[in-house]
Design goal:
heterodimer; A: 240 residues; mainly alpha; 12 helices; flat; B: 106 residues; 4 helices; 83% helix; extended
Amino acid sequence: MEDGGIVRRAFRDSIPVLMGYVAMGFASGVLLAVEGGISCAPAWAAATSATFVSGPLQYIFVDWVRTSQALGSVLLVTLCVNFRYSLYGLSLIDRLKGASLWQKAYIIGTITDETYALQTACRLEGRSGVAYCLFLAMFDHLYWIGGVTAGAIAGVLAQGAFSTERVAAVTKGIDFAMTALFLVILTDQVRERANRLPAAIGFVAALIAFFAFGRANMLVPAVAGIVATFFACRRWMDVR
Amino acid sequence: MSAEAKYAFTVLVSVGALSYLLRALPFALFGRRGEPPPVVRYVGRVLAPAAIAMLVVYCYAGEAASGRMPFAPYIAGAVTVLLQIWRRNPLVSILAGTLLYMFLVR
């Protein structure tokens, strides 16, 4: 397939991702601008969305800058939320054999659930396959950065046009979007039987950690409890 | 640089670096052999649902401290989950749940 055809095909396949990323990104950008309490929100939005490339982290970043969450818990949450990506990369190794170092570095750095799913579903081989993966990664990455940044710009513009207080009054409660996002991800995860026990372990460990240590200090002990339980209960898990 | 900007910059660099490292790690570690050890596969498989469940609790813990209407997050959360079970459209579920919550805490 010639290159133009591959670009078109990658773009066509990415359209559902376009809608999802722009909408979810936009909401997280608005959230950062109106709730984050940080100046130059659009610049932060662009920089974080380009490097984190993660919905959950983008939303929780707002909570982090607002509460100055300890860096240790920040990194631990990053590790837990994105650990699965380190397994995704593996199944792309064969597919990316002909790619240059920079192409590989970019495709790997922008892996997400959605991008990975499309990349593995595509049956193109060799150079065409690499080109397809590269363009798809680029489209999805740009949608995400564009959505988050546009949301932050919209938030800042609204604050300028009205007033920070007026905007805060209208958008009061918009931070629930983060809770709703996690609830939706969790709902989809527990459709799969194998995810139910791990989710229950995470839920109970987090509750215990919250009551024992409070919200500000709960994440590190919760993760410790989760990982310890995983190793203690491995034989009862659906995946081992 | 303000204290917030300094903190945000630290988070940007460290989370950005760790995110990249996590995505690139298998290529560096298992690129030749092509298979991670079973224990890595196991943890990779079970960690994501546990982490998301933990973050749900973390969000609700924040709600409890916010001093807003105490039942609002549970009502809005239930609607979000039911919509997601029924329609399977994340955008619709999140939008409806958030708008309902914003209406309830008004």
